[in-house]
């Protein structure tokens, strides 16, 4: 049995058309008592904890979309609830399944560049105006910041590639372009396909931006990880191109991706040269079936298997919380004086529980 719960009439109508065999409701209690084997929490970010805490208390294995929530306190509440109830929790950090990321991690684990010491990520968000500045993403109340909302992916990837979590963070940022765009409207009831156009360019000439915009369109954060790795993440929402560039520097070389999907490459430099030498090795980025290079179906497949059988997974609720914490504290820094913020630790029992596959309390 499939059931879809959506508080909006349009959402329920869309669900009925796309999944005609599904039961449709606007009442969460109806879903909680429906007898479903697992649930996907796909609400706006600031409602993740509000729903996930209830599904976990109901004993339903829960997939929570990233970011886990928009505050450290809400993220911790989700983890604490999963720990106390023994209900399986999974977080949708699909980039861990993207070929470019999986390939770079494998190269690191194989020792191809030695011990990782630094990671830089530049994120060019060419569709930023259309994707994030015309709907609920444009307001702090819904996302805290795009450094968290969008950056949670990359912060998690940085942690995964480095094998550590952020301990201290600082940041700067600004609403540099979209705050000055005068063409605004109320987009409630509309969706991205109603306004998206690659011809709506340059950024200062975007049309139909949200009436309220109070999130930054450019952000830069520096991180000190708990194993000593230094990392940085830069995000810009008014670039003409749309892709992620990772540079990972180790004690025996470095790697860098050019493009983040099929047709792109991962380049390795492992011998000394001068100027801009040709890479010692060029590896083509693989492709898969489905969205994000095949990552999306792999993510759902892993969740469903976890919901039934449990065990360790490529994604990790602790890692998801640590990405939220880094993003939230970086936002505090950039909206303050740019000084460093310390990431609050999780209790050891929660860390151990989730890092070892949620086995201690799971009711098999």
Kindly provide the radius of gyration, computed on alpha-carbon positions and rounded to a whole number of angstroms: 21 Å
How many extended strands?
16
Outline the low-pLDDT stretches. none
Q: Largest sheet, if any?
A: 9 strands, mixed
CATH-assigned fold name of one domain: Rossmann fold
Q: What average pLDDT do the residues reach? A: 96
CATH class of one domain: Alpha Beta
By oligomeric state, this entry counts as single chain
End-to-end Cα distance: 22 Å
How many H/I helices? Answer: 13
What is the string of SSEs from the N terminus onward?
EHEHEHEHEHEHHHHEEHEEEEEEEHHEH
Structural class label: alpha/beta
CATH architecture of one domain: 3-Layer(aba) Sandwich
Q: In what range is the share of β-strand residues? A: 15-25%
Give the strand order, joined by hyphens, for the main sheet.
15-14-13-12-6-11-10-7-16
Shape: globular
CATH superfamily of one domain: NAD(P)-binding Rossmann-like Domain
Family: Belongs to the Gfo/Idh/MocA family.
Protein name: Putative dehydrogenase
GO molecular function: nucleotide binding
Organism: Arthrobacter pigmenti
